[in-house]
Amino acid sequence: MPVAVDSTVEVLAALLRAGPEGFLSGEDLAGTLGVSRVSVWGRLRKLQGEGWRIEAVRGRGYRLAAEPAALHPAALAAHLRLRPGRDRAGKIDVVYLPETDSTNREAQRRLAAGARTPLVIFAGKQTAGRGRLGRTWYSRERGGLYLSFAFQPNLPPERLSKFTLWMGLRLCRLLNDAYALPVRVKWPNDLVHDGRKLGGMLTEARADADWLRDLIFGLGLNVNGDPARWGEGEAARVGGTLQQVNGGRALPVNAVAADVVAAGARAYQDFIAGRYTAEFAELWARFDVLRGSEITVRLHAGELRGRADGLDDTGALRLALADGTKRVVQSGDVSVGGYGKKM
Hints:
The chain folds into three domains: 7-66, Arc Repressor Mutant, subunit A (Orthogonal Bundle), CATH 1.10.10; 73-287, BirA Bifunctional Protein, domain 2 (2-Layer Sandwich); 294-336, SH3 type barrels (Roll). It is 32% helix and 26% strand. The chain has ten helices and 14 strands. It has helices at 7-18, 26-33, 37-49, 73-81, 103-112, 163-179, 234-238, 242-245, 253-272, 277-287; strands at 53-57, 61-66, 93-97, 119-123, 144-151, 184-186, 190-193, 196-208, 211-222, 294-298, 303-311, 317-321, 326-329, 333-336. Residues 1-5 and 338-343 have low confidence and may be disordered.
């Protein structure tokens, strides 16, 4: 369902703006919304039933004490209203689905049906989440973010060579600067910390002749939760969460979601306008987790071992081999000595 801007969202936005220590009177809320105080109380009671902790103190009013631990469409909409500059890529339609097979597939379906772009689709969980090379992305943890941006950029396909990495770099900047979380990019499409995979990115595109028509950027980001609960598969072995990076303290998942939408929209607009080359180099120097590491790159036919030596102009990985030769790798799975296992 669309993330609607209704009176409930307005109530939440007002409470969020007041902050955890601020109280708003029922009279002020009613005046802001143009409804009765009884109507305001009814909306607050509804929110309390959905997991919000809203305190009422006689003579002071209402205070937002805690948000739901999981993604909540009204909370997401309220946080989005408080994010300045999120419309630099045009009006963004944001859709929340409690469950879908894959947000990338849902984006494809909506684009085929003529949906307006830019569009962002969130899912509470995915039943068939996907990663690179057809791999499965674990998408059932309530504390995770599963989303896809859909754009129609009208660009030649060769312009996209660094797009996924660029989006990852801007997400790293957000998580480092706004949340003090030292997340890095691992070529070609992972967000990592201390050997654990925190997020994965998947870009898919459709071109007509030599022109890019549809562009979908999918992101799975493990915000809160414990990988020990993910079973015995690869996700539990190599995965991690932002909560772990944050010293075990849970993050406000709806605020993080709104920040991701705003950051992704700005990153896309800067990329399309060509305003990214200098910043890409700066951010890559800051967030490249492979820099100078001895790595193994598994290819379709064998593997290469050497030292990661940055990127070429297309975003391919440069590799310095032990015999002094240089190789350029367009795609592959990378293992690092410090990681101990493939990520």
